[in-house]
Amino acid sequence: MIDYQKRITVSPELCGGRPCIRGQRIRVKDVLEMLSEGVSESEILEDYPYLESEDIRASLAYAASQSDHPILKTQ
Q: Are 14 and 65 in contact (CB under 8 A)?
């Protein structure tokens, strides 16, 4: 699994503290929304030449880590 912590940054001074790609003004959410709308990785990289394939994979890994939560026991 990719170590997203090397590529996903959070800073209060950038994008309101939302997770961004390598300290740039593109949020993880932006990448995820493009992917969910069917934009291909190659199109994203063409439109944002400062991004790398690893940035897209790091965005997906970050999202996966955020969706995991403890299972609550019911009594």
A: no
